[in-house]
Specification:
About 45% of the residues lie in helices and about 10% in strands. By secondary structure, the protein is an alpha/beta fold. The structure holds adenosine-5'-triphosphate.
Length: about 270
């Protein structure tokens, strides 16, 4: 399983403080801790299944998946479902069984399925003699009946591409939709990325990373996702660095003006 790349251990030093926004999901997680995974049944609760996180690309779905694993101190296994389909009759089902067996052997653990819609894309095209549908059924049955402490985090960019069965009750504990960040969330994300990088006194100079600066920049970044906010902070820093001077508010403003967020490009295409 490891050799085929179907399952891969992910190590990351990302923590919840690295995630700006995503308040609903954070609140939900806050009420649950690692021991919930192990001891839910003791209190008459169902074994935790996991969460499905959907939303626009670059808004932090992968980021929070990694942060959850560090918050709960659990190993993070990335499950690449698309690699399950080997083309040899029968072995896709065996690959799925083996992946599930491996994850359960490592429990308590997090099984992270990134872009789950891609993994089951063969189902909609119907071009694989029902193998995708059978493997998908296997996965759903496992989710439904799961008793092990394997917490599944499935992330998806395109909820429309997901088979409706996946959204039915009993599969995931909760489904979260992550939208474009609000102004307050953008300020938080700006803060995360500034604080992570603007540490050296030569870089900061007289620049004040205070509430009003964050609010001003957050106002200017409507339509930006987290990845675009991170990119603009890096661009502003690079601008100052390449001119061998400390950073100024104007560097951030210029970086914002030079960025056309993907959400705007997409909206223009629709119009
Ligand atoms: P994709 O579906 O394209 O993989 P995603 O939603 O999983 O996108 P990430 O890969 O988590 O997005 O985001 C890319 C990078 O952008 C992150 O590593 C992080 O540095 C930054 N970023 C995105 N969202 C946030 C956020 N909410 N808070 C802080 N940083 C963010």
């Amino acid at each position: 399983i490891k050799k085929t790349g179907i399952l891969e251990f992910i190590t990351s030093d990302l923590v919840m403080e690295d995630v700006g926004g995503l308040e609903n999901l954070k609140r939900w997680l806050h009420k649950r801790n690692k021991s919930w995974l192990d001891s839910a049944s003791k209190y008459g609760l169902d074994a935790p299944k996991g969460v499905l996180i959907t939303g626009v690309p670059g808004c932090g779905k992968s980021l929070i998946s990694k942060a959850i694993s560090s918050m709960w101190h659990l190993p993070l296994l990335r499950f690449d479902i698309s690699k399950i389909f080997s083309g040899i009759v029968g072995s896709s089902e065996e690959n799925m069984r083996e992946a599930i067996r491996t994850a359960e052997a490592l429990a308590p653990a997090i099984l992270w399925i990134d872009e789950i819609e891609k993994g089951f894309s063969g189902m909609s095209t119907g071009g694989d003699s029902g193998t995708s549908a059978r493997v998908f059924g296997q996965f759903l049955t496992w989710m439904q009946e799961k008793k092990s402490a394997v917490f599944v985090i499935a992330t998806a960019n395109n909820i429309q591409a997901l088979p409706p069965e996946m959204m039915r009750k009993g599969r995931f504990d909760e489904i979260f939709f992550v939208d474009l960040p609000t102004m307050r969330e953008r300020a938080e994300i700006l803060k995360v990325h500034m604080d992570k990088r603007l540490l050296h006194p030569d870089v900061i100079g007289t620049f004040q990373r205070d509430e009003s600066t964050l609010e001003h920049l957050a106002r200017m970044t409507e339509g930006f996702v987290g990845a675009e906010i991170e990119h603009l902070v890096i661009s502003a820093m690079f601008e100052a660095y390449s001119e061998e001077r400390s950073i100024t508010l104007a560097d951030f403003e210029r970086a914002i003006e030079n960025t056309v967020p993907l959400s705007v490009t997409q909206a223009e295409q629709i119009l």
